[in-house]
Amino acid sequence: MTAREKLIVALDVPTLDEMAAIVTAIGDTIATYKVGHQLYIAAGPKAIAFLKERGKRVFLDLKLHEISNSVAAAVHAAGKLGIDMVTVHASGGRKMMQAAVDAAAEFPGMQILALTVVTGLSAEDMAEIGFVAGAAEQAVRLARLAKASNCHGVIASPHEVKALRAAIGAELRIVTPGVRPAGAAIGDQSRAGTPAQAIQAGADAIIVGRPIVQAADPAFAVQQIVAEIAQAE
Predict the structure, then answer these.
(1) Which of 29, 101, 104, 128 is 20 to 30 Å apart from 78, CA to CA?
(2) Is 63 a catalytic residue?
(3) Which range has the worst mean pLDDT, 17-31, 80-94, 164-178?
(4) Is 158 helix (H, G, I), strand (E, B) or coil?
């Protein structure tokens, strides 16, 4: 993969018009875009259709976490829209993840990525929820479960990538959210890292949203991040 193919832009915007303006401004530089809860609830399949009509890969980040039948049905619906990647919560368990993988098999190339530990959770948050393990230990446990469930990859913060790569090997993709260019505001991310840190730790791809979509010049912001990825390789 080239440096630009390793960058996934998160379209964290509230309207279809704003999304269209950003994608148009970035142009051909980026091949993959992430559609999360905000945009999908606001624009639904229209957002997906806009991206697919322009030849983009779509990462639908809804973090599915339900009974197996419901998750399988959701994955099947996503496949019919042409979605390339769908996220599920690894904490939903082996049966749920396997059901998602089985549903995706009907659509060639569609991948199921399992979220390990949300990047916004701090050590204090995890203790309050009731996790005995820290973020890194929990991420490794869930990544191993995702691998056993035949998922195609996992989602984890830059802080856990190195441990995950050692635990699950090179077979599964590691995609990293919570990435902020040096000097950018961390915002609500508790376990953030720079593009270079994520790539050097072993991430296959990184997700960047607000530093790009809120930039005065999204295309220039993309160019800077791609250059940082290239330097880190």
Answers:
(1) 29
(2) yes
(3) 164-178
(4) coil
For 83-116, b/e burial (b = at least 16 CB within 10 A) is: bbbbbbbbbbbeebbbbbbebbeebeebbbbbbb
Amino acid making up residue 122: S
Find the radius of gyration of the CA atoms of the chain: 17
Q: What angle do CA 210, 213, 217 make, to 5 degrees?
A: 125
Burial label, 170 (beta-carbon count in 10 A; 0-12, 13-18, 19+): exposed
Give the helix/strand (H/E) hosting 221: helix 218-232
Instruction: State the pTM of this model.
Output: 0.92
Residues 229, 110: Cα–Cα separation, whole Å: 25
* Alpha-carbon span 164 to 139, nearest angstrom: 7
Q: Which of 6, 34, 63, 147 is catalytic?
A: 63
pLDDT digits (tens, 9 = 90+) for 153-186: 999 998 899 999 999 999 899 999 988 886 665 5
Is pLDDT of 194 > 60? yes
d(CA 146, CA 153): 8
